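Appendix C reproduces, verbatim, an entry submitted by the partner laboratory led by Prof. M.T., so that reviewers can inspect both the input and the predicted structure.
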Amino acid sequence: MRQASSKRETSETRIELAVNLDDPTEVNIHTGVGFFDHMLTAFARHGRFGLKAAVEGDLHIDSHHTVEDTGIVLGKAIREALGDKQGIVRFGTSYVPMDDALGFVSLDISGRPFLYFEGDFKMQSLGNFDTELVREFFQAFAFNAGITLHARVLYGENTHHKIEALFKALGRALREAVNIDPEIKGVLSTKGLLE
C-alpha cells in the first residue's frame, strides 16, 4: 500500500497530513478555511486518494500560510508515498467541466518540479480563501512533489466553478499518473530513474 504521513510546524502553521494512493476510504480535512477544505476534498475524491489533514494556521492574518504550507506538506507526502516510482504510468492529463468553466491539468511525475499556471478569478476571495492562493498552492504542491505541472482555466465566469474544475482536474490527472501498469518494467524513463 502506497501511503505516507508528513508534518510541518512553524511559527505560522502546524500541519499533520496523511495520504494513501491506493485506498480512498478516508477523506477527512480540516484547515480552518472552508473553501480550501472543499477543494482538497474534491481533489481527493476525484483522484480516489485517501487524505487526512489537520491544519492550524495564523488565520487571524490571512489564509496564505495555511494554504501554501498545506501544498508543501501534501507534495512531500505524495512524493514519499510514490517511493521509487516503479511501474507508474508517470503522465496524467484531465479536462474537467464545472458548469460554465473548463479546467485543464497535465502533469509528469518527472522529479523535475515546474509549474505553468493560467487562471484569472473575478472574485478576490471566497469566504476566507484568497483566490490568488490557488496558484500558490499548485506551486507549493508541484515543487515539493517533484512534478512538472501545467494548469489552466480554459474559460468560465464563476470563480468557484473555475477553481473547483482545477482541483478536480489535478486529482484526476494525478490518479492517472500514479496508476501502476504491470507492463512497465522499472521506471518509465530512458534514464532509468525519475528524480
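DSSP finds four helices and ten strands in the chain. Additional entries are available on request from the coordinating office.
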